[in-house]
Amino acid sequence: MNTPLADQMRPQTIDEVVGQSHILSKDGILYRIAQSGRATNLIFYGPPGTGKTTVARIIAKQAGKKLYKLNGTTASTADLKEIISSLDTFEGMNGVVLYLDEIQYLNKKQQQTLLEFLENGQITLIASTTENPYFYIYNAIISRSTVFEFKAVSPEEIEKALERGVSILRKQAQQDHLELQVEDHVLHSIALSCGGDVRKSINTLEVAYMSAQIEDGVKYITAKQMQTISQRAALRYDKSDDVHYDLLSALQKSVRGSDENAALHYLARLLEAGDLISPCRRLLVMASEDIGMAYPMCSVIVKACVDSALQLGLPEARIPLAQAVITMATAPKSNSAYLAINAAIADVRAGRVGDFPRCLQNKHFDGAEVENKGQFYKYPHDYPNHYVKQQYLPDILKDRVYYHFGENKTEDAAHRYRDKILADLKDE
After folding, report:
1. DSSP labels for 191-223?
2. How many CA atoms lie within 13 A of 259 on its CB side?
3. Blockwise average pLDDT, block size 10, the chain, 428 residues
4. Which strands make up the sheet holding 179-182, listed edge to edge?
5. Which of 288, 283, 356 is nearest to 323 (CA)?
6. Beta bridge partners of 100
């Protein structure tokens, strides 16, 4: 059986790993750990195809201890107990290294089973996960481990790996008495289309090689062929994982920062992943949270765009949503309403509520203990400028100010109008 190209290319030393220069450069902490020949409890966190498994295997191999490998998707408590029982054997007398892939799929009880042996050093854990370990891994295990984040590999680094792959494929072609030719820019195209996933890019190259046309003893991998193999970029996206929330966060922060181009980019990534509902909900929030009182009609416009998008569905929904994003990104900004309601809620949660001022209560009879009976509510529309001064907040909060006018055209106008009313009141 032929060995897959990705396995043929799997790095055997830490220097052969592409990407992750922030932790695997010559001065990187993880590089020094790998070169030390000693294993310590490690957790690798990041997207697929970025080298987590490869680095874990290299470190475990160099540690010189018995290596066990488990995958969290299939591992059972019995599997863990079998490894624990081996600690009393000759092979396990110096401790073992457990490489646990996709550790997030182990439940809390299974993870707790390992604690005692991590504590005394009989088991050294090297785990990898595609999810945020602080959400999915038992805290006691995290506290005994060092967490390293692996990032999507840049197209430039992936292209280097693909060049190595081509050299291997050329040797395979020669064994079949063939020559391999790769059209210009094909490797760059693959590197761009695989979303920072080295393994996927290598698999794509291998599929291209296997499906390449042969003419006069030459195998041709062409750009046209690649368009058939890879219809769109491999977008890593799952509504339950970090990328989902990172995209929504990036979308909102780009709008808030008045960068319509970045906002459109993140909107496009959400829509290309087939997610229509999440951006619609987030855009509705942003209209009030980030534009708010600076342009109150913006929430009406965004609501209309979202309604249109939901009625149209994809792909047409992209057009009204783009309109909503551009409108908000280029609009004046104010978070005054957002800050005001947060301050009010903070008082309520702290128990600062108090009784209603008598003038605001619904009409009912005063008790015998009330000397000055009556509601004494003043109807503002009966007064000049439809305003009359009276207390609305409870006594314990009567001087509390939640809303502060923002510095923008709309709120400046409202502020001037309020000042005029109060000035007229003083002149009476």
Report:
1. HHHTTT-HHHHHHHHHHHHHT-EEETTEEEE-H
2. 12
3. 82 88 89 86 89 88 82 87 81 78 87 84 88 85 90 89 92 89 88 84 89 88 77 52 82 95 93 88 96 95 95 92 96 95 93 82 61 72 88 89 92 91 79
4. 179-182, 218-221, 213-215
5. 283
6. 70, 127
Lookup: tokens for 346: 């903070």
* 171 contact partners, CB below 8 Å, separation of at least 6: none
Residues 6+ positions from 335 with CB-CB distance below 8 Å: 289, 290, 292, 406
The residue assigned the tokens 């066990």 is 68
**Rounded Cα gap, residues 266 and 318, in angstroms:** 12
Q: Are strands 179-182 and 218-221 parallel, antiparallel or unpaired?
A: parallel
pTM of this prediction exceeds 0.90? no
> Could you give the CA distance from residue 215 to residue 393 in angstroms, rounded to a whole number?
86
Short-list 324, 329, 319, 328, CA closest to 303: 324
Q: Pseudo-torsion of CA 46, 51, 54, 59, nearest 10°?
A: -70
What does each C-alpha distance from 353 to 360, 391, 396, 404 come to in angstroms? 14, 14, 8, 21
